[in-house]
Specification:
single chain; 648 residues; alpha+beta; Serine Threonine Protein Phosphatase 5, Tetratricopeptide repeat; 4 domains; five-stranded mixed sheet; 23 helices; 73% helix
């Protein structure tokens, strides 16, 4: 009987203990995203050491949390998304085998953040829905608030403004119900941003002011400045320049004390824009110059671009056209840089999405196992509740409990066998999936785990090899994407007028750094103002590929000459003093079924697809492409493009 009463007390107090633990877990999870000055290597090594200790002591809950932590570090710090998904899949497998329901919620949240990072918002929403469903068993309102805030953020990014508004409204209601002021302020802030997007400035201002009041009461200086900045921008949109300036100045003063250069640049820019709109150009320029200095210090591209843009406008208004043009040119250069960074991000996102799609197979199998296990657990819980109700009535319950205990033990053995089989399956799948990228993994693993034992020369050699491999992979992927878009009709080869000579000059400027590294002289033998009519982007790709190949296969001290011969069509040629080719190689060079990839004079690797892509693009613009080469003396690649009358 004593044991019976102890069991009753345990089950009565278990929910309260679980709730307290849940709140602690939420604080732990949110802390994973707080910026830290520790290097990513130190963070990963510390987490891996703790993981080993947790496994040795058989602490499954701690092991799951450390797997999640490693996943989040790889998402937010190192951007190693494949490693991140591997850690989170391990976490799912562990949680599936040990009924760690709360930890599974945080794994789903980590997966949602992972797919958000690679631009797959629909998949991110799916995992947030899984987290919400997992939370239904405990109905923990703190966790629900966290899930709603994450869902609202993704819906805003996804363009689902109304859904995001609903998410933040419910999160606000929960925060007030549970007396969580920090969460209340965050929900109000997000609601204000959504209302601004809807053009409801007065309602937005009300929410932001309330968020500001709460954040001041909590002495959260970073978020107080954030709220002041939002209020300042709202007043600017509402044409109340005086209040806008007061709030931006207040935000700036806080940010200067915190010494966050990116935020300081934002505040100076906002103040500068206000003065510009008021035509107080001297003060506008002073603030924009300070914003530019702060932005440059931390390479904050958006703020640097904004500073250049408004400095150009200011000087134009002051009739100082020389400076206006200088800053406009800087603005254009920054825009090109930002577009290049955007293109690289999009390419990387495409690569990461491809990796994630492969990894979804593993996650899908875990989900099926989880659903099956939930059905089994549900049946077990029904049996346990029934037995618990009868435990005080008769001795028959004791016999029934013993019987169920034996059955449960048998069930656990069966489940363990299933899990062992599943683990073997995961191992096989993981091996097959990682095969294509083993070389990159080997390089990075060696650098991470043995950096302290390697000499500078060895590290430099490994880094160069890794850089070459990555650049080759990126070039291959870029050419594959261009080829795919061409073959599937996603490129509209619409002819347009453009200056062909300017295009060649821009490519010379773009690649002169590579040529200089090999002491190669780039010579331009063409007139200026030569107009052509074709699809300019595809012709630009052809010029860039041919010039890049010439640099690759020309030895140190060589020369590369770019020329445009006039006629009914322009004949563009790229002539090098490189290694040349045999006649057998020339005959099959542009054939799709024959892929050529030769090492350059500095052992640069080629993708083998560049010339095939060039031939396709030239022909789709109505031109022809060819090559003349003598082995050991150099090559001349040429193509034709429709000509218009020259400017001169």
């Amino acid at each position: 009987m004593k044991l019976f009463f102890l069991l009753i007390i345990f089950f009565l107090f278990l929910p309260n203990c679980s709730s307290a633990q849940t709140n602690t877990n939420v604080i732990w999870y949110e802390g994973l995203y707080v910026p830290t000055k520790r290097s990513v290597d130190k963070q990963i090594k510390a987490a891996e050491a703790k993981l080993i200790e947790a496994r040795q002591s058989d602490n499954r809950a701690e092991e799951a949390r450390l797997l999640i932590e490693l996943g989040v570090i790889n998402i937010t710090r190192s951007r190693e998304y494949e490693k991140a998904v591997d850690w989170l899949v391990q976490s799912l497998a562990l949680e599936d085998s040990t009924d760690l329901h709360q930890e599974r919620i945080f794994t789903y949240l980590g997966l949602a953040r992972l797919f958000e990072e690679v631009g797959n918002y629909s998949k991110s929403i799916e995992f947030l829905e899984q987290a919400s469903k997992q939370n239904e068993d405990t109905k923990n309102r703190v966790i629900l608030s966290l899930i709603l805030n994450e869902t609202g953020r993704i819906n805003v990014a996804y363009g689902k403004i109304d859904d995001a508004f609903e998410n933040f409204e419910i999160a606000l209601e929960i925060a007030r119900e549970l007396s969580l002021p920090a969460r209340e302020a965050d929900a109000l802030f997000h609601l204000g941003q959504v209302l601004t997007l809807k053009g409801k400035y007065n309602e937005s201002l009300k929410n932001h002011k309330e968020a500001l009041r709460i954040r001041r009461s909590l002495s959260d200086k970073v978020k107080e400045a954030q709220s002041l900045n939002e209020v300042g921008e709202l007043y600017r949109l509402m044409k109340n320049d005086e209040r806008s300036l007061a709030n931006h100045v207040a935000a700036l003063e806080i940010r200067q004390k915190i010494k966050n250069k990116a935020d300081i640049a934002e505040s100076y820019n906002n103040i500068g824009v206000l003065y510009f709109q008021q035509k107080i150009f001297k003060r506008a320029i002073a603030n924009l110059d300070l914003a530019l200095d702060a932005g440059r210090e931390v390479q904050e591209s958006n703020q640097i671009y904004k500073s250049y843009d408004y400095l150009s406008r200011c000087y134009k208004e002051q009739k100082d056209f020389k400076r206006a043009i200088e800053y406009r040119e800087s603005c254009s250069a920054m825009q090109d840089l930002m577009q290049g960074e955007k293109n690289e991000r999009e390419l990387l996102e495409a690569q990461n999405q491809y990796l994630m799609e492969k990894k979804e197979i593993e996650i899908g199998k875990l989900e099926v196992n989880q659903r099956n296990r939930e059905k089994i657990i549900e049946e077990q819980e029904k049996q346990q509740k029934f037995l618990f109700a009868l435990i005080a009535l008769s001795i028959v319950v004791v016999i029934l409990v013993l019987y169920l205990y034996a059955m449960k033990r048998k069930s656990n053995l069966a489940l363990q066998e299933i899990n062992d089989t599943k683990d073997k399956l995961f191992s096989i799948i993981g091996h097959d999936l990682k095969g294509p990228l083993n070389s990159f993994t080997a390089f990075s693993s060696l650098l991470i785990n043995h950096a302290d034992k390697l000499t500078k020369e060895e590290i430099k050699t490994l880094s160069v090899d890794l850089d070459k491999s990555l650049k080759n992979l990126m070039a291959l992927l870029e050419n594959l994407l261009e080829w795919s878009r061409s073959q599937t009709g996603n490129i509209d080869f619409k002819a347009e007028e453009f200056d062909l000579s300017t295009m060649l000059s821009e490519n010379i400027e773009l690649l002169k750094g590579q040529a200089a590294n090999k002491k190669i002289t780039l010579i331009s033998e063409y007139k200026t103002g030569l107009l052509a009519k074709a699809h300019s982007n595809s012709i630009n790709t052809v010029v860039r590929n041919l010039l890049s190949n010439a640099i690759k296969f020309t030895p140190e001290g060589g020369k590369i000459t770019l020329n445009i011969e006039e006629g009914k069509q322009w004949l563009v040629s790229v002539t090098d003093t490189g290694v040349g080719m045999s006649q057998a190689t020339i005959h099959s060079l542009f054939e799709l079924g024959t892929k050529h990839s030769t090492l350059g004079t500095a052992k640069e690797k080629g993708t083998g697809l560049g010339l095939i892509l060039c031939k396709d693009f030239v022909e789709k613009n109505g031109g022809t492409i060819g090559v003349e080469s003598v082995e050991g003396k150099g090559s001349k690649f040429y193509f034709t493009v429709s000509a218009l009358n020259s400017i001169n």
